[in-house]
Amino acid sequence: MSSHALSRYTKMVSFTFFTCIISAVLIWAEQRIAHKALHPGNTIIAWDFHHVIAQPKKHRVIKRLGKLASGITLLGNPKLIKKIKEISHRRGTGQEYAELLVQHKYKKLAQAIEGIANDQVPIKGTEALIKRLHTNGYTQHILSDIGSTFLHKLEQRGRFNHIFKLMTYKQSVNYTAGEPHKIVPGGLYFKKYFDLLHTQNKDNYAIIFIDDKPQNVQAAEAAGKKFGVQVIGIPFHNPAQLSKKLAELVV
User: Fold this and answer.
1) 82 or 142, which is more confident?
2) Which range marks the domain in which residue 172 is found?
């Protein structure tokens, strides 16, 4: 092998070796970040509300369904039907439907939807987990697609105040003002939350986000990657499953 060829070979081997070292360091760093110890001083537990903290009182929901018969006349309103389908397509919330129906003079139907959406009771297993995390010193927030008006009425009723008082922040959505919900492209819902954490000097906190909808969990994790925040998503199935998953991470 000529000296020129040997020199080229040596450079190639050195470059390959250097690249492997850099790759190994990057992988190690990513693993260190992914597996860093989570504790109350660097972790926030962020909860969805409906079907995670709260569940509907089924017998009362069934009773309220009778009032939905008042909406049968909207079948003759194609423009309204189109708007309802738009809300359904983007997986909108009860408040969005209710506000739309009020605009179109279907007040009783809107009230029935509001009643069904807000006639909730705490899920006992989740309630116990929230209390345990609070006792262990974890900061806890609510990140929900619930409309701001519906949340305010829930607070007025007082049924969840013993849980709400353990949450240092509750993010709802002001649909009248056109605020985005969780799966709006671009992660704008979560950016609002991350901006809040920035004002509190908690940019480096890990967020354990719990939601019953997989698409919301995926949206939260994608937003975390986009905006440089560590988000660990947990799809919620039931309190026992959640307790087991949390035990692997923090409790």
Assistant:
1) 142
2) 43-55+122-249
